[in-house]
Amino acid sequence: MVEAEWYPSPPFCSHNGAGRYGVSARPHLSAIMTPMDGTTTTVPLMHCYSGAKFNPFEPEPEDIRIADIAHNLSNVCRYGGACKKFYAVAQHSFICSLVAPPHLKARLLLHDASEAYI
User: Fold this and answer.
1) Those residues with Cβ within 8 angstroms of residue 90's Cβ, 6 or more apart along the chain or in another chain
2) How far apart are the first and last CA of the chain?
3) Cα separation of 31 and 43, whole Å?
4) What SS3 class is residue 41?
5) Distance (Å, rounded) from C-alpha 27 to C-alpha 48?
6) What is the largest CA-CA distance in the chain?
7) What are the φ and ψ backbone dihedral angles of 46, each rounded to 5 degrees?
8) Which residue, 73, 11, 12, is CA-closest to 48?
9) Are 52 and 45 in contact (CB under 8 A)?
10) Cα 7-8-10 angle, rounded to 5 deg
11) 8 Å CB contact between 31 and 23
């Protein structure tokens, strides 16, 4: 059995997407894990919009949620923010799905989904 102690996000992070500097902070939690052998390791965890805790180094399929993907991508600007008007990754994915042939719509809607967790 593994025990974990949770440490809160830094004060400039918030789970609603806007950090102290007005950018998407994607807050993180750290867990101090103590496996049965008595060693202690720190595991970086993302505290997601849905409340789930996601380990990007050991992702589990059940930890990936469409609500988290939609929320995170709607708060991330394309082109690293180097555009005159905010253009969300989610907006880009949605537009791609609108112009795609029917058999590619779902694929294009989720083609940038991994950016929600990296």
Assistant:
1) 70, 73, 74, 76
2) 28
3) 5
4) strand
5) 8
6) 55
7) -90, 135
8) 73
9) no
10) 120
11) no
Q: Any idea which residue has 């112009």 for tokens?
A: 99
Write out the two tokens for 75.
């708060």
Compute CA distances 97 → 33, 71, 101, whole Å: 41, 18, 8
Q: What are phi and psi of 54, to 5 degrees?
A: -120, 125
Residue (of 42, 97, 103, 100) closest to 73 by Cα position: 97
The pLDDT of residue 118? 84
Least Cα distance to 89 among 53, 64, 51, 117 occurs for 117
Token pair for 31: 């867990």
pLDDT, one tens digit per residue, over 6-64 is: 444 443 333 444 433 333 344 444 555 555 666 666 778 888 999 888 988 888 999 99
